[in-house]
């Protein structure tokens, strides 16, 4: 019994390869989770630069007791010291303070004390930083009764209190979808829109736009009707604002809004923001470039009409620039974006070809990091899956087969899966040519000439059943290998690819 027959006897159900051309919104989600680290959903306010260094307090319970001192002066002094502890750059004792008996109710009491604005701002600052901690810390603040007070303070005439309240609510909304939805139900988004429209000072505007973004993100995504009013506001900020921080957070917000069904993508397109997002792709400031790319990348996960609308806005030429980025994350996401275009119509595949993007993508597949190689391989796979015979021939002429063969030497299952699927799609077109002309499958010959058939054969020993089954399927379909054959592709039929061996 051959080694193949032995493995076949223990095989499991293979993966479904029929959906390779589907646009990969789930990949967008996974990349978002990984790459969002630089754009944190929570942020902690540090101490004032003129306050000097703060050491960790050795007796937090005694400090909390001072919040109940008989004079406002002593209460304020203790409140400032607690805020400083919570604002330490490293090892802030958030859990210790939040869990000290009586502390949280007292902070919320100070937060609602309109007669003592200094206590209010210090309490707001402290609660903001507690909410920036773990999920348990955030839940503790939310359960303390602080949320409705923060919403009221957003509408006060005191800019410092407004800003700190927005910051706190943004932290809480960024923790999880249920808290985000609770805050949305309090009309916070409409209050933020009014604040932005009022032309506030820049620090208040920055916090408002950041908080808007947190109200538009999360899993599951928010109900679209709840966030629809913010779309034109975000679009206007992206088009008109020059402040780097505001522009960055507005682009992130656009990416969150466009992450979902086609009606959300259509709303972003209707806001006329796409040309500006495309313009921002050539920014040399990564903090702006990355979310702008994320936003347009999300849009091309939509239907073919939505994808074409972005292409018509001039998306393809800037992608050349992004494929040369020194940042692997940018190159990866650029390839992901292109892969969702080549998952579209043959006209859209041709637009990618005409823009001269295939050569650089193949280069990324050969020289990039593993995650970049995988996304580049998806570009080729989708084009081979949905393209015409002429378009597949173009891919081969551009050198995709040697590049795909290189990927077969990797052990990463996701890379191997897409590489094998791409090879299958290309060989399928070659088989059609063989049937039409009576000549050999030219792409099967190319695969063997660059060592690809040896690598496909070696994958019979891969730990993944899915990889084993896919590689065996290729050998059976295009090299006429049977279950009982001991396979040596290079020797088999003297490279006659399906012709009877000569006696």
Can you tell me about this structure?
- The chain has 503 residues and is mostly helical.
- The protein is 66% helix and 0% strand.
- It contains 31 helices and no strands.
- Helix 7 runs parallel beside helix 10.
- The radius of gyration is 29 Å and the shape is elongated.
- 46% of the residues are buried.
Tally of alpha and pi helices: 31
Number of extended strands: 0
Amino-to-carboxy terminus distance:
24 Å
Largest sheet: none
**Morphology:** elongated
Structural class of the secondary elements? Answer: mainly alpha
The average pLDDT value, as a whole number, equals 88
Could you list the spans in which at least 5 consecutive residues all have pLDDT below 50?
1-21, 26-39, 488-503
Q: What percent of residues adopt helix (DSSP H or I)?
A: 55-70%
Radius of gyration: 29 Å
Strand proportion: under 5%
